[in-house]
Design brief:
Strand content: 15-25%
Distance between the termini: 39 Å
CATH architecture of the domain at 2-144 and 177-201: 3-Layer(aba) Sandwich
CATH class of the domain at 2-144 and 177-201: Alpha Beta
Structural class: alpha/beta
Helix content: 40-55%
Number of strands: 11
Largest sheet: 7 strands, parallel
Order of helices and strands: EHEHEHEHEHEEHEEHEHEHHH
CATH superfamily of the domain at 2-144 and 177-201: NAD(P)-binding Rossmann-like Domain
Length: 291
C-alpha cells in the first residue's frame, strides 16, 4: 500500500496520477475528499484529515509500506517560524513510518551543507535531519527553484511584458520542473528494491540567470519579455501589504537571499532531470499565457 500526501497539490497530484497508472493500491490523506476528482476518489482509499496529525498519520500508515511526504505551504497565516512549522508537521509521520517499517520519499530543498540562514530552505533541511534521526528508510528529493514559480507571473507577462522577482538578475538560478519531481517520486515509490537513507538531487539541465530566462520566454512567446529585479526591501514591503505574517516575510526574504548567495551550489547535483527551461516554457508557460 502506497500512502500519498498533498494529493490535490501540484506535485502530489502528479505523483498520484502516475502511481494510479501502475495499478498499485493507494491511500491518500486529504482534508477535503471532494477536492479530488471523482474518478480519483473511485480508485483510492481516503483518510480524511491533516497529515500533521498523529492519529491521522497512524491510521493512514496502517498496513502501508511506502509514503510520499510533502509539507504543504503554511500560506499567509501566522504559523510561526518555518523551522517550527516543518518540524512540528513532520515529527509524528517520520516516527510512525520508522516504527512501522514504512519507506519515505519526501520533498526537500537542495543545498545540504549551506552554512548561513536560508529561511524556508533551512527549515526543509532541518526536516531532513529529523527524518534521518528516526532511522526510517528514505529518499529525499532535493530540489532547487521550481520552474512553475514563473506561472505566478502570467498576468504581468501578458499585460506588461515583464516578470519580476527578488532574485539577482545576472546570477544563475538552478531550476526543476514539477513533472520531473513527480516522475522521480513515483518511480521510487514503485521500486521495491532500495533501502537505506539517501538524498536524490533533482536539477534541470539549464544554468540560467533570470535575465536569460526572460530571453527564452521572449523567444517562446514571440514577444519581448524582460526581467525586473525587485530589491529585497521592496519585496518585504509587498509581502506585508499582501498580509503575510512577519515570520513568513522574514523566512521568504532569507530564502531569496540564500538563493542569491548560491545555496543550490552547496550540494552535488548529478544527474540532471529531463526538462529544460525552454521545453517547459513551450509545454506549460505558453499555454497558460494564451488562456
Amino acid at each position: 500500500m502506497i500512502v500519498i500526501t498533498t494529493p490535490t497539490g501540484d506535485i502530489g497530484r502528479q505523483v498520484l496520477d502516475r502511481v494510479l497508472d501502475s495499478g498499485e493500491p493507494v491511500r491518500v490523506i486529504v482534508r477535503d475528499p471532494f477536492r479530488l476528482p471523482e474518478h480519483v476518489r473511485a480508485q483510492v482509499e481516503v483518510v480524511e484529515g491533516s497529515h500533521a496529525d498523529a492519529e491521522t498519520i497512524a491510521k493512514a500508515l496502517e498496513g502501508a509500506d511506502r509514503l510520499f511526504w510533502l509539507v504543504p505551504p503554511a500560506g499567509f497565516r501566522d504559523a510561526g517560524p518555518a523551522r517550527s512549522y516543518y518540524l512540528d508537521f513532520t515529527r509524528a509521520a517520520a516516527q510512525e513510518a520508522a516504527n512501522r517499517g514504512v519507506r519515505m520519499v519526501h520533498v526537500t530543498s537542495l543545498g545540504h551543507g549551506y552554512q548561513d540562514e536560508a529561511g524556508l530552505l533551512s527549515a526543509a533541511l532541518d526536516m531532513d535531519e529529523l527524518i534521518e534521526s528516526t532511522g526510517v528508510r528514505y529518499r529525499a528529493l532535493a530540489l532547487p527553484f521550481f520552474m512553475e514559480n514563473v506561472l505566478r507571473q502570467v498576468q504581468p507577462i501578458t499585460e506588461r511584458g515583464v516578470f519580476s522577482m527578488a532574485n539577482t538578475a545576472d546570477r544563475p538560478l538552478l531550476t526543476v520542473a514539477t513533472r520531473d519531481v513527480a516522475a522521480t517520486a513515483a518511480a521510487l515509490l514503485l521500486d521495491t528494491a532500495w533501502s537505506g537513507q539517501a538524498r536524490v538531487p533533482l536539477v534541470g539541465p539549464d544554468r540560467l540567470t533570470p535575465d536569460a530566462m526572460a530571453e527564452i520566454i521572449s523567444e517562446t512567446l514571440g514577444r519581448t519579455v524582460r526581467y525586473q529585479q525587485v530589491p529585497l526591501t521592496d519585496f518585504r514591503a509587498r509581502m506585508a501589504q499582501l498580509g503575510a505574517s512577519p515570520s513568513l516575510t522574514q523566512d521568504m526574504a532569507d530564502m531569496i537571499n540564500a538563493q542569491n548567495n548560491g545555496i543550490y551550489d552547496a550540494e552535488p547535483r548529478d544527474p540532471a532531470t529531463a526538462t529544460d527551461f525552454r521545453r517547459w516554457c513551450q509545454d506549460v508557460l505558453k499555454p497558460a499565457v494564451q488562456l
